[in-house]
TrEMBL record:
Name by which UniProt lists this protein: FAD synthase
GO biological process: FAD biosynthetic process; FMN biosynthetic process; riboflavin biosynthetic process
NCBIfam families (alphabetical): cyt_tran_rel
Record keywords, A-Z: ATP-binding, FAD, Flavoprotein, FMN, Kinase, Nucleotide-binding, Nucleotidyltransferase, Transferase
Species this protein is from: Lentibacillus persicus
Length: 274
């Protein structure tokens, strides 16, 4: 899979390089089951048509740009990780548009014309609530008209879990309460984050969100093999302490994947001597 960072300076170059494709649209933080349905729909449409499948996302998140920098934003996964998951789902090209004020102020029609039609998109796929263009005024129901009939559009219906729409916002809430079990259901996989080991504790790499402080069962990649063990997330949520494994198996400075299974019931062990 090729990853292409688009901005005003290189836009024309990449337009010329593009070929016919089916494109999935959205920010896709966390790539949960709703996102997966959008992307799989695009992959299937592209296969039917014998063209490439592309994803167009943005960076940074629109909220950080449109809130005048006042709002902090917790990313669920960095772009590199997003790219890996998209590649596994069968995406050929991953476009990341630099989301700045001038891009945000494009009219819905200008966005569809300059970023979809001009990029060889013959069919676009987005979820039922995808919005685009200045003030988020464009929505998936009018995209075909915004393109002047030049592209077809598939709108993917809402994917829910226990009656609630699966969303990146919900993932952030589950991380903030440490509910890794529900998170597993809405991601369709266990939550994973990459860390560095400093000889004493793990520290998350940037653009991951660490679950709420507490104890968790996790799988850690060590030198030789993955181990199932227990860790404690400290109050600062930047320090993850191993509770029960042989620290000699770790190599300092490594990029280590931690897969989160469940929160361990907080309890105090009393011992009595009689
Ligand atoms: C060209 C373009 C312009 C946008 N302008 C605005 C805007 O002015 N205000 C806003 O709140 N969101 C704006 N957005 C963000 C969208 O409304 C939406 O949040 C974003 O495309 C992510 O969609 P998703 O959350 O469905 O993935 C814009 C998006 C695009 C693609
Ligand atoms: N539960 C869902 N069912 C179907 N489509 C979805 C679902 N969630 C997101 N999508 C679609 O996936 C794409 C990416 O959406 P987006 O990144 O806004 O996800 P989100 O989970 O809704 O995020 P947020 O919680 O920040 O609004 C969009 O086309 C959106 O419509």
């Amino acid at each position: 899979m090729e990853t292409i960072y688009l901005n005003a300076a290189n836009l024309d170059y990449w337009k010329k390089k593009s070929t016919s494709n089916v494109m999935a649209l959205g920010f896709f933080d966390g790539i949960h089951k709703g996102h997966q349905k959008v992307i799989r729909t695009a992959v299937n449409k592209a296969k039917e048509r014998g063209v490439a499948v592309t994803v167009m996302s943005f960076f940074p998140h629109p909220k950080t740009v449109l809130s005048k920098g006042n709002e902090t934003f917790d990313y669920i996964m960095p772009l590199t990780e997003k790219g890996k998951v998209l590649a596994q789902l069968g995406v050929d090209t991953f476009y990341i548009v630099e989301f700045d004020k001038s891009f945000a102020s494009l009219s819905p029609e200008a966005y569809v014309s300059n970023y979809l039609v001009d990029f060889g998109v013959e069919h676009a796929v987005a979820g039922y609530d995808f919005s685009y263009g200045k003030f988020g005024a464009g929505h998936v129901g009018r995209m075909e008209d915004d393109s002047g009939g030049k592209l077809g559009v598939t709108k993917v219906d809402k994917v829910s879990y226990q009656g609630q729409k699966i969303s990146s916002t919900w993932i952030r809430q589950l991380l903030s309460t440490g509910d890794m079990k529900t998170l597993q259901h809405i991601l369709g996989r266990s939550y994973e984050l990459a860390c560095k080991w400093d000889g004493r504790a793990f520290h998350p790499l940037s653009q991951y969100t660490v679950p709420a402080p507490g104890s968790y069962m996790v799988t850690i990649e060590t030198k030789n093999h993955p181990i199932l063990t227990k860790v404690e997330v400290a109050e600062d949520q930047q320090t993850i302490l191993p509770l029960e494994f042989d620290q000699a198996t770790m190599t300092s400075g490594d990029r280590i994947a931690i897969t989160w299974h469940r929160r361990v019931q907080d309890h105090i062990m009393y011992s009595y001597s009689v």
